[in-house]
């Protein structure tokens, strides 16, 4: 399960966890978007390998931009260290080492500020 919790007092206390994905296997990235929201990147098992997913989570429990970044057609599409994420202005970039093509896989997503 993938969950997110927010703290507004430098980590002394956290809000109750927000369930982002029940079937999530592991969190691969977290980027704070503001003091009230964060982008979360995680993987989950699919029929043909691990699926990479992303969402924006708000401290009030809202979840936006929930999207599947990669749903492989064959198993083991990426290898360790797994996908990574960065936010630059209004864009989120997700990258992974694509084992099938022996290249860097990258997706750019436009997100609202």
Taking pLDDT < 50 over at least 5 consecutive residues as the criterion, the unreliable ranges are none
Helix/strand-derived class? Answer: mainly beta
Number of strands: 9
β-strand amount: over 45%
Question: Can you give me a brief rundown of this structure?
Answer:
Helices cover 0% and strands 58% of the residues. It has strands spanning 2-4, 18-21, 26-34, 37-46, 49-58, 63-70, 84-88, 91-98, 103-110.
Structure description:
It is a single chain. The protein has 113 residues and is an all-beta fold. Helix content is 0%, strand content 58%. It has no helices and 9 strands. The strands form 3 sheets. Strands 3-4-5-6 form a 4-stranded antiparallel sheet, with no helix packed on it. Strands 7-8-9 form a 3-stranded antiparallel sheet, with no helix packed on it. A two-stranded antiparallel ribbon has the order 1-2. A hairpin with a 4-residue loop joins β8 (91-98) and β9.
